[in-house]
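Slide 14.
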Amino acid sequence: MTATGTFEVDLSPQKDEAAPVGRMLIDKTYQGDLVGKGIGQMISKRTDNGVAVYFAIEEFEGTLQGKSGTFTLLHNGKMSAEVQSLDITILEGSASGELTGLTGAMRIIQQDGKHSYELDFEL
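Slide 15: predicted structure.
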């Protein structure tokens, strides 16, 4: 099955001068087939030659096509001049409530400053 919709995201950089990586708090509001909030943290690193990576853990709470519960999304992204990749998967065993047993993967589409998602899932 596929769920689609949009989301708004607020990223709050966290200062730590001693850390060799960047850290941000994630606060998302989902609309569409997913209705609810996603909160989490992102760790990122950019090299001098322009390669960047990020990893994030996001906890969603709300409804998926009318079924309520929670689940965890794992983000793994890499960007360079040659390659851009982003894998977002649902952490196996993380779903609760009516979403217990949920598995799947999400794609994020950015266009004209707006964010939308496609979640391919099994429940």
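Speaker note: The domain at 2-122 is CATH 2.40.350.10 (AOC barrel-like).
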